[in-house]
Amino acid sequence: MKVRLQKIYEWIDQRVQLQDLINFMGKKYVPVHRHSVWYYFGGVTLFLFIIQVFTGILLLFYYKGSADLAFESIQFIMSKVSFGWLIRSIHTWSANLFILSAFIHMFSVYFEKSYRKPREITWITGMLMLLLGLGFGFSGYLLPWNELAFFATKVGSDIIGDIPFIGEELKIFMRGGEDVTGATLSRMFGFHVALFPALFSILLIIHLLLIQRQGMSQPIDFENNSGNEISKMPFFPNFFLRDILFWLLVLNLLAVLAVFFPSELGRKADPFAPAPAGIKPEWYFLFMFQTLKYFPANIWIVEGEMLGIILFVAAGFLWLMVPFWDTKSSRGQKNRLTNYIGLFAVIFIIVLTILGWIS
Amino acid sequence: MEAVDSLQQKNGRREFLKYLLTGGITGFCAALLYPLISYLKPPEQNEVAVSSVSAGKISDIEKESGKIIRFGNKPVILIRTADDKLLAFDAVCTHLDCTVQYKKEMGVIWCACHNGKYDLTGRNISGPPPKPLQPYRVILKGEEIYISKLT
After folding, report:
1. From CA A129, how far away is CA B40, in angstroms rounded?
2. Where are the domains of chain B?
3. CB contact B96 to A (< 8 Å)
4. What's the mean pLDDT in A227-236?
């Protein structure tokens, strides 16, 4: 057996020089310091994405993307297909944990200032993937075609219609018409299973290649005392095994959540029924939704909601561009201002999410 | 002298080819993008031209209750009040597009999404709705209720 494996290895090695790859992996190191734990969250986010692709493909085998059949096909998955409830529940929970883990990863990178030169492109691709992740959440939410999803999509796309200049066009493009109908479901389905995964994969490849090429980012203090020996551990196998252990823990957590808190389906969407009480967006949109509630109907001559959206778009853009305005960090200097801005963002998001949750 | 001439001629030809190529590529991209963007724009659907619909018998709707009636492809809310009046309004909340309902306890038209309230003339009285609900005309012919647009 061992001889045969050795032969297969040699056969491949002769053609693609595997040894070079192994040598390359052996040279990769992960810096060890008191903030090392945050390095795991990128990997966990990747792991959750892989689970999403895997369970998503499984759901596609039974799901039917039309207004007449979508709800019934999910009912079928939940009640008739063996372990259908488990696959769907894992898909829903993994989606939530994916967003959470991506947010943790993003904030840890922000506070470590790992976006600084030369890793600007890694930051931008990461941020775009997070935005796509939110798009995955929004488009996937409608697919079961239940009451809550129907009205949440109505509200969500109506808010998008408030974006100045392009809002109305964008709303019609998203809805596939004036109203949320079966055409909207077809579009969201197309975004969710084809367009977004394709875009995400391209960004992910660039993101991962850059990390391999540039290595792990180190804290700024490490770079400053270059005379001293920096403690680090080899990526393979030391860090890799820790990564796998963390992934296993996450998989267990997912299983527990999916078994004890399986996804619900609710009632089928009926465009000619009143909206049910308790319409709320997914938790990761809640802080924006809650903030918009505090804006009065009109501020001077602009609609309050429109002003709120403009502010969010502007803040998001500044956040995306942080490697370019925080030039101090790129020069290896401490920048307290970015810390305060980051801290404000974290507190703002947490407080408004809680307020949105309890209201 | 001849050499300079031929060089100028060559440069002129190069410039010309550059413009031709840039123009060609631009045209090519436009020819690709135009059908693509047009395809993504949903086609205009002819709205079913409805001027009035039947909303069932008066015996089907209890006093102090409301129900949603399909008016073409839009929902309309029909309300039978405590003093036996029949009222109808556009059922789409003017705030964010949710469908409203009649709230008996409060005697108002209520939107569950963001707690918007309208009185029984359709006026927005509380919560986030920025505009009133458009009223419809209700006609009672014998037992049958008909709803039509106000012209």
Report:
1. 23
2. 1-43, 52-148
3. yes
4. 77
Q: CA A216, CA A213: separation in Å to the nearest integer?
A: 9
pLDDT in tens, A255-303: 999 999 999 999 999 988 888 887 788 999 999 988 988 887 777 777 7
Residue A271 at interface with chain B, using a CB cutoff of 8 Å = yes
Q: Give the side-chain half-sphere CA count within 13 A for A143.
A: 25
Q: Cβ separation of B96 and A172 shorter than 8 Å?
A: no
Q: Is residue A261 part of a domain?
A: yes
State whether residue B1 sits within 8 Å of chain A by CB: no
Tell whether A42 is covered by a domain: yes
> Residue A43 belongs to what H/E stretch?
helix A40-60
CA-based Rg of chain A, rounded to a whole angstrom? 23
**Is the whole-model pTM more than 0.80?**
yes
| Nearest neighbour of B113 by CB, restricted to A175, A176, A275 | A275
Q: Tell me if A22 is assigned to some domain.
A: no
- Helices A84-112, A40-60: crossing angle, 10 deg rounding: 150
Kindly determine whether residue B112 and residue A278, on different chains, have CB atoms separated by under 8 Å.
yes
**Global ipTM:** 0.76
**Mutation for testing the A interface, residue in B89, B113, B115, B133 having most A CBs under 10 Å:** B113
CATH number for the domain spanning A241: value is 1.20.810.10
Q: Is the pLDDT of residue A224 over 70?
A: no
Give the total number of structural domains in chain A: 1
Out of 3.40.350.10, 3.30.300.30, 2.102.10.10, 1.10.486.10, which CATH number does the structure's domain B52-148 have? 2.102.10.10
Range of the domain at A181: 32-219+229-358
Quick: pLDDT tens for A40-62: 999 999 999 999 999 999 999 99
In a domain, A121, yes or no: yes
Closest to A122 measured CA to CA, from A133, A132, A114: A114
DSSP state of A263: P
- Report the C-alpha gap between B138 and A318 in whole angstroms: 54
Picking from A155, A172, A176, the nearest residue to B96 by CB comes out as A155
